[in-house]
Amino acid sequence: MRRAVFPGSFDPITLGHVDIVTRALPLFDEIIIAIGVNANKSYMWPLDERIEKIEAAFRGNTKVTVASYEGLTANFCKEQQAQFILRGLRNTTDFNYEQTIAQANEKVNGVDSIFLICSPEFSHISSSIVRDIARNGGDFASLIP
Ligand code: ADP
To answer: Which fold does the domain 3-143 belong to in CATH?
Structure first.
């Protein structure tokens, strides 16, 4: 059973996230979209709403499940018996951020990361842009599922 965890804040889930999961589906038997909960961080959408939005985006897809976790992503992967972490890369900023985390997860925990480069039509989309638009009363419908 090849299982991957796709970790993130998903505050909120965007078309960029959906693209990464959809394109990763042929690689894995199961993908767990996992919302990492950090008690010191504040979020725009409450956890239950973020979970609902993700579930709605993948309703009917039996290979995708949604979960939340606290603490280290690698520990959550072990609990779930997931051998892989799935992440999306938009640009070199994402790459630089991900590189050391991926290396540490592999060395310390034996969990390998699989990266997909985002489709060009989604490279401008981020949850933080959606939050900015939402905060200022704009229309972000074209950026989310
Ligand atoms: P985090 O708070 O961990 O950055 P996010 O919810 O912002 O979590 O993102 C989760 C994952 O989705 C990360 O790997 C991020 O690079 C990726 N991602 C975010 N937006 C996009 C996008 N537009 N295209 C491809 N991947 C994306």
So the answer is: Rossmann fold (3.40.50)
